Input
Amino acid sequence: MNTYLEKLYLAARADERHIIGLMSGTSLDGLDIAYCKFTGHGLKTAVEVIIFETIPYPDHVKEKNNKSFAQQEVDFAYLVLLNEWLGRYHGALVNQFIQKHQLDKASIDVIASHGQTVMHVPHHQHSYKDMLSGTLQIGDGDQIAVGTGMTTISDFRQKHIAFGGEGAPLAAYGDFLLYSHPNEHRILLNIGGIANFTLLPAGGDVSKVFVTDTGPGNKLMDGWAYYSQGMAFDQNGQLAAVGKVHTPLLSRLKRHYFFSLPFPKSTGPEVFNIDWVHAALDDIPDPLSDADIMTTLCAFTAESIADAIHNVVQQSDLHLYISGGGVHNPILMKMLSALLHDITIDTIDTISNIAADAKEAVLFALLANETICGNHWNTTQNGTLLPTTLGKISFPA
Output
């Protein structure tokens, strides 16, 4: 038997597995690395986050990614080369992480890498009648495996598309396995570049789980912070705090066709980006301050999230738990609290040892754990099959 395959076989039968989860999101701010210990699988999954760290990307890495990220036209040769380069770079960051924290590579069963999304195209976003949905994540798993000497599982979203889904959001898997509750109706909201939520009705019935994107999360606010202030993001909501919501601009933003589509649905920065904001501003005759635009974008994110929840969720006595970078924006949190005043709101770390910023990296570690030793249970979600073994396996040699 292949020695690496044998190691996976033994890991699947072991009492616990050590997995490193990697996540690079639409903010392009850095690589999230979560070193996790798993016991069990499926509904018996338990996870301990031993170490979590975000390694920031230097400017030259951000510039490399931005040349292909969510661009309608790219240099095809550059994209192919960037796929390989980013895999090597992520592998080098993992080696750096392991050395810094004095981890034993032999004790790590696999690396789980989300990669970097460069294009997400659900079916509603294109006009090719004979094609469905598609998504592309770069940062080749073979490069990570060879560079680290560790088996790597990557490219998780393709199986979801193969089963008829849109490749996003994938949060429902981890949310259902880790956070289902026998008595409490829960919504798990993640506010990254794009916002999404998972509805977990009380009782743990997988057929009733619902997941959808809601629209922009931090992406538009981050884009405006960089364009207007030269900042990576609006730290502590300081710019949004001094502006006022401009109702005509907010109404213009909310007229986007995405918000009239039926749920569930997915989207990305290919649609919601700074160029789209500028196009909307061109339709507004009023002179607006940078602060007013930021406050309006913040309100746009909050209202699109709240509107989606109110449209989808029928349960009463709900408890909403938030993760992602959006939890650090107090103005956004204040707006959400006002719009969802009938729902109890907390951050995700109040019900687990998983910090809000670490949740997505842990999710992909969990998906790798399921791929190694999980069962092949499937369910339907509004007509979309959900497989539980996702990702492609790359051996180091």
